[in-house]
Write a structure and sequence with these properties.
The chain is mostly helical. Helix content is about 85%, strand content about 0%. The chain contains three helices and no strands.
């Protein structure tokens, strides 16, 4: 993983964690704007990482739901 991807992913993880803790749905956009003011390259990588992390969370929740339903039926 290159430095850009590492930095973007770490920021995305931290921002999404704070978003969950605080319920602040504007946080990702605020950080995106702050990053974009200095580096559009990092901004794009950050948003990609946010989308990937959110998609991963949705997929994991779906898998867990399927497991729970399967456990009840079995």
């Amino acid at each position: 993983m290159d430095i850009l991807t590492q930095v973007a992913d770490k920021l995305a993880q931290e921002v999404l964690e704070v978003e969950r803790e605080t319920g602040d749905e504007d946080l990702v956009e605020e950080v995106k704007k702050t990053i974009g003011a200095s580096s559009t390259t990092l901004e794009e990588a950050f948003m990609t990482a946010v989308r990937v992390r959110r998609a991963e969370a949705r997929a994991r929740a779906l898998i867990e739901d399927i497991r729970r339903v399967g456990a009840r039926q079995g």
